[in-house]
Structure formats: structure tokens, C-alpha cells
Amino acid sequence: MSTSTHRHVELERVETGTYRATNERGGTLQMGTGSTSEFTPVELLLAAIAGCSAVDVDALTSRRAEPTTFRATVGAEKIRDDSGNILRDIELTFTIAFPDGEDGDAARAALPRALQVSHDRACTVSRTVEAGVPVTVRTT
Questions:
Q1: Where would a tag sit more exposed on the chain, N or C end, judged by fewer CB atoms within 10 A?
Q2: Residue range 38-47: mean pLDDT, rounded
Q3: Which string of DSSP letters, residue by residue, matches 16-72?
């Protein structure tokens, strides 16, 4: 990965209601309005929250033991109020299990700290959401 601090994703319309996002490395994913099985932008935001924290937690715990179960579930309430649409009550829940034994015990012991570090410091996505960073929109 580049040492640049700038991150960039390009979005292109495929057809009405379907869009393709492409990252700097050439990876692509399609998203849509929710009328098909494609992820919606809101679902992608939730997936990004879960994925970002999962990467952190996995890196900190799996060096001690390979998990036997590793799942993250994230949910939120999408509401429309006087100011527009917004997600409220975002909740991320991990279900993680490690094998019995000394290595598994070490991973279980590291898990609470890994979750805390991800939430408080390492997960760029949830920290950005919580900080309420403004988004500038323009046209070229």
C-alpha cells in the first residue's frame, strides 16, 4: 500500500440505480439502491465499520491463536428527522472464540484490550463517524 495519507475511491454509474466503486489498487465492488442483492451505501458504511474494527482485532488476537469463530455484526436505526436521513444507535457486536489451551487463553485475554484499542484509537472508520467529520461535496 502507498505511504501517501490520501485515500481515493472512484464511483461510476453502471445503470440506473447501480454503481461501481474502484479503489486505487483496481479493486471493484458494485452497490445499488437496495432493489437487488447489491449492498446499499448505508450497508457499505456499516460493513466498513465492522470490517475496520475486525482488521484491528484480528491482527491483535490471531497472533496468539487462530480464532475458531470470528464474526462481527453491526446494526443501526435509519431514521428521517427534520434535518434529513441519518443512522442512530450504531452497535457493533463481535462473536469470537479461540481454541482451548494456553494460546487460546492468551488470545481471549488480549481480546478486551484489542476491542478497546480499535474503538478508541485504531479504527479510522468508526472514529471518523463518531467525530462527525464534515464532507465537502462539489462538482467539476
A1: C
A2: 96
A3: TTEEEEEETTS-EEEEESSSSSSBPHHHHHHHHHHHHHHHHHHHHHTTT---SEEEE
> pLDDT tens-digit profile of 104-122?
999 999 999 999 999 999 9
- Residue 109 phi, psi dihedral angles, 5° rounding: -70, -30
Cell 489498487 locates to 25
Q: Do 125 and 49 meet the contact criterion of CB atoms below 8 Å apart?
A: yes
User: Torsion over CA of 124, 129, 131 and 134, rounded to 10 degrees?
Assistant: 110
Provide the whole-model pTM: 0.92
Find the helix or strand (DSSP H, E) in which 125 lies.
helix 124-131
